[in-house]
Design a protein that fits this description.
Keywords: Molybdenum, Oxidoreductase. By secondary structure, this protein is of the alpha/beta class. The chain has helices at residues 82-90, 162-173, 199-211, 221-227, 269-277, 308-326, 330-336, 347-365, 382-388, 422-434, 458-479, 483-492, 548-567, 609-622, and strands at residues 14-20, 26-31, 66-67, 73-79, 93-98, 109-116, 123-131, 143-149, 152-157, 180-183, 215-218, 233-241, 247-259, 286-294, 369-378, 397-403, 409-412, 439-442, 503-508, 514-526, 531-541, 587-593, 630-631. It has 14 helices and 23 strands.
């Protein structure tokens, strides 16, 4: 757990526990000894600006008189330990008065717009597709310890983006960034949830700042599932197509459930990612009519895939429904509508392999076989993030590589290790280039510029930056006679090397988001009551692998996560949130292609790839038995 990483804390810390709303929408009054919003009345900054067309909605640390969703923090207590904090919560009473009507006057429509065009075809069909809320549910939830050391507020936090946390906290407290220090342990899973910093974490930081107390908060699993949620989209679709299988146009009326308020970084960005990916790999004209609504749900945050699974679920279900109506093969219908997209890998090979596996499964199982074909774009660029979204978060990552006098190559990056093994990948890149294995990687560092781990960007940015930096370092070392000679100089004749610093810093971001063409074929069995995923075949053109075994692990993990999302996971029951175990894992075959991307290392982003396509292939397989129009699967 998180507290294993806090041996360096100076002094004792106390424990925070939150009083949470038990009502979805109500006025409330707290009686008893508790901290409320008035004690920590700070403005929470927003990273995004392009969403300025949204209603101007405040991001609360604690609810202000009105609770907006079940689980919203409305008060805080401080205890000597977890048990003392719970006892103090028992002494606090909350009175509620239920409310009705919109959260924000005059209605809950926060933003609406339309874009795109379409063409009418010879035939049409209509679909209502819904992707309900789900929780990232990492192995370890959120955790934060705040201390006061040497005139600084020191934040030990389980986060995917330490530099972003530092900026938001400094802006919130109205202090200079050099007064804020963020330290990140080895993060116990993120899945997007720890990309943003949420009200609870900011409230603990603010309360520590106000009281001067060293404070700790460890999120419980039920708290996480109740309040950390992603997805939440409805698509009312009209599809036009010709009898030859060509889809001429789509009208998609999208309702995006923002929740009670936007998060500082996420905002409504998953919606924009859905819109970018809705066309997927196809040449199809799409008209989208978008409505963003506020609701009495938790604020929608990032979840692995970040809008892509929703897009692929919609377009791939459309493909299968059109194929079924025209009696086309699911592979043929996709080939008929392919766009000519460059630099995403070997499209022809992926389709060939998917067709072969589909036919093999069809012969073996007859029914319950689903397909998805997709391109996973990773690592958004500064052109999009800063230029279009007006965010201070850029698409680049800087990495420093240094040879110290002990003979250790030190690598520093702001990206964090949250289970994807980025530290091992960077170490491997350096060791391979130098043919030297004494390498230490410091993740979550604030000694270099960058923005952490999200959007499948870690290897694309930090990996390429590391490669560029170590190549330059290698040139410096070779010009001085090799590593052994440099170490001799550093230790015995340091004056001879004083002006020849043995390090390199390089920054990198791709010119455009990097695509990886991918396909999945899933087999599902049905006994008349329950569905079971039996087999999954996934092929991904990963380019050059930073670490092939870790890539395979990422792909398999995403498939299993999507399996749970389709069949088991229900945020309406946070105390019994079912996550797949080894018992539910099907036979999975992963095939990798290696067409280098147009980046220095030839890498492609992988972290969100398989989960984004697996929801669709599983849903299409189940639709051989019962049409799937909603995730998780409903059979009312």
């Amino acid at each position: 757990m998180f507290y294993h990483y806090v041996d360096d804390i100076k002094g004792k810390y106390k424990v925070v526990s939150f009083i949470r709303s038990t009502k979805p929408y109500a006025r409330f009054k707290i009686s008893g000894k508790a901290f409320t919003w008035e004690d920590i009345d700070f403005r929470v900054p927003k990273i995004f600006e392009s969403e300025g067309k949204l209603k101007d909605i405040e991001i609360p640390l604690l609810a202000k008189d009105k609770a907006l969703y079940v689980g919203q923090p409305i008060g805080m207590v401080i205890g000597e330990d977890e048990y003392d904090a719970e006892d103090k919560k028992d002494e606090v009473e909350v009175e509620y008065e239920d409310l009705e009507g919109p959260i924000y006057e005059p209605d809950n429509v926060i933003f609406s717009f339309s874009k795109g065009e379409y063409e009418i075809g010879e035939d049409s069909l209509s679909l209502k597709l819904k992707f309900n809320r789900q929780s990232p549910a990492p192995l370890e939830g959120r955790a934060v310890i705040v201390t006061h050391e040497d005139g600084k507020i020191v934040i030990r936090i389980s986060t995917q983006a330490p530099t972003v946390v530092k900026k938001i906290v400094a802006d919130m407290l109205d202090v200079s960034e050099d007064k804020v220090e963020v330290r990140v342990p080895r993060v116990g899973g993120g899945f997007g949830a720890k990309q943003d910093i949420v009200s609870e974490e900011l409230a603990v930081i603010a309360l520590s700042y106000v009281t001067g107390e060293n404070l700790k908060w460890i999120e419980r699993k039920s708290e996480h599932i109740m309040t950390s949620q992603g997805r939440g989209q409805e698509h009312d679709v009209k599809v036009y197509f010709n009898n030859n299988g060509k889809i001429t146009g789509i009208i998609d009326d999208i309702t995006y459930d923002m929740g009670a308020y936007p998060l500082p970084w996420t905002g409504i960005s998953p919606l924009y990612v859905t819109l970018i990916n809705l066309r997927n790999i196809y040449d199809i004209k799409i008209r989208t009519n978008i409505k963003v609504i506020a609701s009495n749900n938790p604020p929608q945050g990032a979840f692995r895939g970040f809008g892509r699974p929703e897009a692929f679920f919609v377009i791939e279900r459309i493909m299968d429904e059109v194929a079924r109506k025209l009696k086309f093969s699911p592979i043929d219908i996709r080939e008929k509508n392919l766009a000519n997209i460059e630099d995403i890998g070997n499209v022809k090979k992926v389709i060939e392999k998917v067709r072969k596996k589909y036919e093999e499964f069809k012969e073996k199982y007859k029914i319950g076989i689903g397909v998805s074909l997709y391109v996973h774009y990773a690592s958004p660029t500064s052109k999009i993030l800063i230029g279009e979204e007006k965010s201070f978060v850029g698409g680049y990552e800087c990495v420093s590589v240094r040879l110290n006098k002990s003979g250790i190559i030190e690598v520093k990056t702001t990206t964090v290790d949250m289970g994807q093994g980025i530290s091992d990948v960077l170490k491997k890149i350096v060791a391979k280039e130098l043919n030297y294995d004494k390498v230490v990687v410091y993740t979550g560092s604030q000694d270099v510029n960058g923005f952490g781990s999200w959007a499948s960007r870690s290897v694309l940015t930090a990996g390429n930056a590391t490669l560029l930096a170590v190549k330059e370092l290698k040139e410096k070392i070779e010009s001085l006679g090799g590593i052994n000679r440099v170490l001799q100089l550093l230790n015995e004749f340091p004056w001879e090397i004083k002006d020849k610093e043995i390090y390199s810093i390089k920054c990198y971001e791709p010119e455009d988001s990097v695509g990886a063409v991918s396909g999945q074929v899933t087999v599902v069995g049905y006994d008349g009551v329950n569905f079971k995923v039996i087999e999954n075949y996934t092929i991904v053109d990963i380019g050059v692998a930073g670490d092939e075994e870790k890539v395979r692990g990422q792909i398999i993990g995403g498939i299993i996560q999507a399996l749970g999302g389709v069949l088991y996971e229900d945020v309406n029951d946070p105390y019994n949130y079912l996550i797949p175990t080894a018992k539910e894992v099907p036979k999975i075959e992963v095939e990798l292609l290696h067409t280098p991307s147009n980046t220095p290392g030839g890498f492609r982003g992988i972290g969100e790839n398989s989960i984004s396509g697996a929801y669709a292939s599983i849903a299409n397989a189940i639709s051989d038995f019962i049409p799937v129009y909603e995730i998780p699967l409903r059979r009312d």
